[in-house]
Every structure is written in C-alpha cells, then in structure tokens.
Amino acid sequence: xxxxxxxxxxxxxxxxxxxxxxxxxxxxxxxxxxxxxxxxxxxxxxxxxxxxxxxxxxxxxxxxxxxxxxxxxxxxxxxxxxxxxxxxxxxxxxxxxxxxxxxxxxxxxxxxxxxxxxxxxxxxxxxxxxxxxxxx
Length: 136
Known about the structure:
Blueprint: H1 17-20, E1 36-39, E2 43-46, E3 50-52, H2 67-70, H3 82-85, H4 121-130
C-alpha cells in the first residue's frame, strides 16, 4: 500500500496494478531502503540481495512539463524561442496550461502550470482538447 495519503500524488488507476504485486514471480523492492549497487550479468544487485532478471527497463527520470517542448526549437513573436523565454523559470507563465503569451496559435495539452499534475491525466487531456479557444 502507498505510504502517502490518497490524492497527494497521482492516483494509480491502471488495471490490476496492486494485484500484480501478489503474483508469485513479482517482488517489490524498496530501493530507498536497499539502494542499487550495480548492474550484474544476471540482473541487479542491491545492498540487500541480487535479483536475477530477464529484462531491465530503465526509467531515468523525465521532464514532464518542459522537456518535450524544449526538444523542439519553438519560436514565437520576434523569433523568441520558448526555451529562452522560460529559461530558469523566469517567465514560465501560461493561461490554464495550454497557452502562453508571445506564442499565438500554439496550444500545449497538459502544459506547464495546468491542473494536469493534480488530477487524472486522461481527464485533463480531455479538458484541454475540448477547451473553447475562441474565448481568447
């Protein structure tokens, strides 16, 4: 079970998520308590044990809000790049997440400062897609 209060982090809504941990071939390893020491020929070794694995999927972290946008050279009015405008968060301002000043006709689904990180992502995506931008 999670150690945090429900709703303080994104809710897990995937089918059979919790049931998966009850499968015979599944182990839950707390890598905060027993950190990974190395990748071995057989799998992963923590400070507690070596786990033999067929496949390792690395999740090296991600920049969910600005990363994908900064990987594209998006330019707005006066040829200002979005990356330069938002550098160090100095002018990272949006209107409800989908739009930002200086970049007309650019709409970001679940963009920075949108409520998407506080809700079910699918619901936020639907809200942004259905938003009536004629109000601008």
